[in-house]
């Protein structure tokens, strides 16, 4: 059944989401923060960030939050974790209290260490809150290539999202483990930065495969400590999303890591990226949470050292390789 859906945020994935929802037969509006941001979308119905993606004329593109969300059954927020609070403090009054709110952000808020759904709940946005996560490289989704995602929240709300967004190209699973799904989506970006550094230093596939395996161990350890379920980290939202982010040439975190691995300074690489790289600020929080919960995360600590303490990627690699090794454990 057709629904009215508002997508908040017209970055890469927000625009793809709007197009996906329109193709699924829904009435869709796409919100951008200012006239400058939405101008190119309105001018030729194309996104400057995703070549070849055509935005249907039926999608209403606007900077007016009230207009975008009026009567919406689903409100999908594609705002990066670090900006969600400031934007939703302004837009919150326009979101219908009956609307199911779906967040696709993958990160932690730095100051509060909250997950995206917790930030929205703290602001009393909409009705039930669902997290949608999984392998979602925007350029592939824009081409209609198949993927699987996980909707996390209450059983009724996730089924609502599943019915609304599942298509021949999007297979959507449901889970009540919202903590695990959000933790997996956030922490994997830190491992993806490390994977990019491996690529930049040309260390080979053996090294990269080892990194992914041990990175997954770190993700699951911290995620379980936060309250997630073990099986979540070995499913679509865990290892599935991790693999995609670490191997895709279009993955922003991997790309940033590669540039740093090739010798570019962290500041120069970050400042020249066209889109927000969630893993950078998320790394700060991950290291703090690991310390708080007593979880060992050597890869995350190494990435933190490279990003914020002037440690070179080569030195970080040496430190990891020289650690005492014993029985492998997850």
What's the short version?
By secondary structure, the protein is of the alpha/beta class. It is built from 15 helices and 8 strands. Helices cover 51% and strands 12% of the residues.
What does the model show?
This protein is an alpha/beta fold and 330 residues long. The chain has two domains: 4-176, NAD(P)-binding Rossmann-like Domain (Rossmann fold); 187-321, N-(1-d-carboxylethyl)-l-norvaline Dehydrogenase, domain 2 (Orthogonal Bundle). The protein has 15 helices and eight strands. An eight-stranded mixed sheet has the order 3-2-1-4-5-6-7-8, with helices on both faces. Helix 8 packs parallel to helix 11 and helix 13 (278-293) crosses helix 14. The radius of gyration is 19 Å and the shape is globular. The model has no long low-confidence stretch (mean pLDDT 95).
Q: What is the 3D form?
A: globular
The second-level CATH architecture of the largest domain is 3-Layer(aba) Sandwich
Largest sheet: 8 strands, mixed
Give the low-confidence spans: none
Q: What is the rounded distance between the termini?
A: 43 Å
CATH superfamily of the largest domain: NAD(P)-binding Rossmann-like Domain
Q: What is the name of the CATH class of the largest domain?
A: Alpha Beta
Strand runs, count: 8
How many domains make up the coordinates?
2
């Amino acid at each position: 059944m057709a629904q009215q859906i508002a997508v908040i945020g017209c970055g890469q994935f927000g625009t793809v989401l709007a197009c996906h929802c329109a193709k699924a037969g829904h009435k869709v509006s796409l919100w951008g923060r200012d006239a400058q941001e939405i101008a190119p979308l309105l001018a030729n119905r194309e996104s400057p960030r995703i070549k070849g993606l055509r935005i249907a004329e039926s999608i209403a593109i606007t900077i007016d939050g009230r207009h975008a969300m009026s009567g919406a059954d689903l409100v999908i927020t594609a705002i990066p974790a670090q900006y969600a609070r400031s934007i939703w403090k302004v837009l919150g009054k326009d979101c219908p209290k009956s609307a199911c709110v779906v967040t696709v952000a993958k990160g932690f808020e730095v100051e509060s260490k909250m997950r995206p759904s917790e930030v929205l709940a703290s602001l009393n946005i909409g009705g039930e809150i669902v997290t949608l996560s999984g392998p979602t490289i925007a350029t592939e989704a824009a081409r209609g290539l198949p993927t699987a995602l996980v909707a996390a929240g209450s059983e009724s709300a996730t089924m609502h999202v599943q019915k609304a967004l599942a298509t021949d190209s999007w297979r959507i699973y449901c889970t009540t483990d919202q903590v695990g799904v959000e933790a997996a989506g956030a922490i994997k970006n830190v491992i993806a930065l490390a994977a990019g550094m491996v690529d930049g230093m040309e260390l080979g596939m053996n090294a990269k495969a080892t990194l992914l395996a041990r990175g997954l161990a770190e993700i699951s350890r911290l995620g379980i400590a936060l309250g997630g379920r073990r099986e979540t980290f070995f499913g679509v939202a865990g290892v599935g999303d991790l693999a995609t982010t670490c191997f895709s040439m279009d993955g922003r975190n991997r790309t940033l890591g590669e540039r740093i691995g090739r010798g570019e300074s962290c500041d120069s690489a970050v400042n020249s990226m066209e889109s927000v790289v969630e893993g950078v600020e998320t790394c700060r929080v991950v290291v703090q949470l690991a310390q708080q919960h007593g979880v060992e995360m050597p890869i995350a600590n190494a990435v933190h050292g490279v990003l914020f303490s002037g440690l070179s990627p080569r030195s970080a690699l040496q430190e990891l390789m020289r650690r005492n090794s014993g029985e492998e454990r997850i």
